[in-house]
Amino acid sequence: ANLSLLTHLLLQLPLTFSLLHAPPAHVPALVPHTPTPLTRSHFSAHTQLDFTTHCNSSCFHRGEQEEKREQLTEKLAFETLYADGSRTLTMVDVEDDGEFGGAHPTPHRGPGAKPRHKRVRRQIYGADGRFNIQGDNFLLDYPFSTAVRISTGCTGVLVSQQHVLTAAHCVHNGKDYVNGARRLRVGFLIPPSINGTKTHFTSTKKPLVHWVRVKRTRVPKGWIQGPQEVSMEFDYALLELRWPHRRPFMRLSVAPSSDDLAGHRIHFSGFDSDRPGQLVYRFCPVEEESNDLIYQHCDARPGASGSGVYGRVWDNNLERWERKVIGIFSGHQWLEIDGENRDYNVAVRITPLKFAQICYWVHGNRLDCVQD
């Protein structure tokens, strides 16, 4: 059976519906200060696609609501990198009439995966469950059409007509911007038939890529100059394209508890390095979740970093399940709890505060970001 057709059928499977839906998360407002000019970047860092961190019980339970307001607002400050290499730093205040932090209630189910005693890093768990997306019928179909390539070797997801969400480590190593960020570009797949090549959905011919320059890049201060174990929760960046695109994009949502995701599943499509030129789709259940990270065993390889992790989220306005970006695929993490080592592939959760920050980056004002 053709894998592309199988993928399409999997997406059409009946979903698990719940009679009770979580109330929409309260989203605080971000109040930006006047940007401060910084020295130009040296672009001295090398891109590290294979991103791995370690975490123990102290960082696993670390949540937004546990941090002091000063610490959190400092991490939510952000750098803006412009196409000419200039940079600015924007400090922010947070206005929140609810409980500060406002993290979506998350059940800590206790690390429930079986202990893994051998420290062998695995990004493919058991049989490889990834599917190549091929042919016009799928590459240009939503949601696969929202996945784009990043010129530094990563993946991104279209979240507006001019913005791409990706992983921060694809453009910045925590100390400096990577060399490839100097002329950062976003790649849109063009199926073979649009290139004038006659093909069909079983074609193995690889699509071409149309590259678009990035106008500016935004990275949270929580990622910059922080130890990786702490800052993995801020491993996200937003790229603004020089020109708007015409493809469908996927809207953002505050990440609900996995219990409020249809089928308890997450999905993402990316450009895994072991399948060059191919868009690769996968889905899997959420294994574990902290306030800032989603732990899962979705098969993934370097190159998939920055993929938009999405789930079927209940939309109260539309009264139906909608695919929405709830996280960004970051990489791999060793989780050490009670002396046991567990390895996971990890995505950064979009919390209410991160949603407010990314939404401000997209819209440029606070009024459009009060609620989803």
From TrEMBL:
It comes from Amphilophus citrinellus (Midas cichlid). Belongs to the peptidase S1 family. Gene3D superfamilies: Trypsin-like serine proteases. The keyword Hydrolase applies. Coiled coil: none annotated. Keywords: Hydrolase, Protease, Serine protease, Signal. Residues 142-273 form the Peptidase S1 domain. InterPro entries: Glutamyl_endopeptidase (IPR050966), Peptidase_S1_PA (IPR009003), Peptidase_S1_PA_chymotrypsin (IPR043504), Peptidase_S1B (IPR008256), Trypsin_dom (IPR001254), TRYPSIN_HIS (IPR018114). PANTHER family: SERINE PROTEASE. Residues 1-18 form the signal peptide. GO terms for biological process: proteolysis. This is Serine protease. One of its GO terms (molecular function) is serine-type endopeptidase activity. It comes from the Eukaryota. PROSITE patterns: TRYPSIN_HIS. Its EC number is 3.4.21.-. It holds the Pfam family Trypsin.
